[in-house]
Write a structure and sequence with these properties.
about 160 residues; alpha/beta; 10 strands; about 35% strand; globular
Length: about 160
């Protein structure tokens, strides 16, 4: 199973200068709860935004064209997305994709589920969330919070 997880503002912003433009503790706790003890895939820019430190209690996988990218022990570097995701397709084994936008665009056609936090405010940014096409996706749950709502989408049959 392949899941994409992101937070976006009401105007669709997911990042500014390669960082989250908000600091909402409860939303970060949701992210941790959603990704903990899972395989997480990210692009090199997202990896850089984490100050090149692996997320604890997760298998960190970085997708990059830079074949000699230096990563800490235990962090997996991949350059062939299609071969990498095959074991997760039609499987109970979960891969959670955490960004950035380029990686979301590459993996979205293979995704089974989207978990989106909608921050209840507009932000200035330079990277925007992927479009969720209602012909392809439908929401299955909404989890309301004070400053954001989490909506889960599954692919239409």
């Amino acid at each position: 199973m392949i899941k994409l997880v992101w937070a976006q503002s009401m105007n669709g912003v997911i990042a500014k200068d390669n960082n989250l433009p908000w600091n909402i503790k409860e939303e970060m706790q949701h992210f941790v709860k959603t990704t903990i003890n899972h395989d997480v895939l990210m692009g090199r820019k997202t990896w850089d935004s984490l100050y090149q430190k692996p997320l604890k209690h997760r298998k960190n996988i970085v997708l990059s064209h830079q074949k000699n990218l230096q990563l800490p022990e235990g962090v997996l570097l991949i350059s062939d997305l299609n071969n990498f995701i095959k074991p997760y397709q039609n499987s109970s084994k979960e891969l959670i994709v955490i960004g950035g936008r380029e990686v979301f665009d590459l993996v979205l056609p293979y995704a089974d589920e989207l978990i989106v936090s909608y921050i209840k405010d507009n932000y200035v940014g330079d990277i925007y969330a992927p479009n969720i096409n209602s012909d392809e996706w439908h929401s299955t749950s909404v989890e309301p919070h004070l400053l954001f709502d989490v909506v889960t989408y599954v692919r239409n049959s």
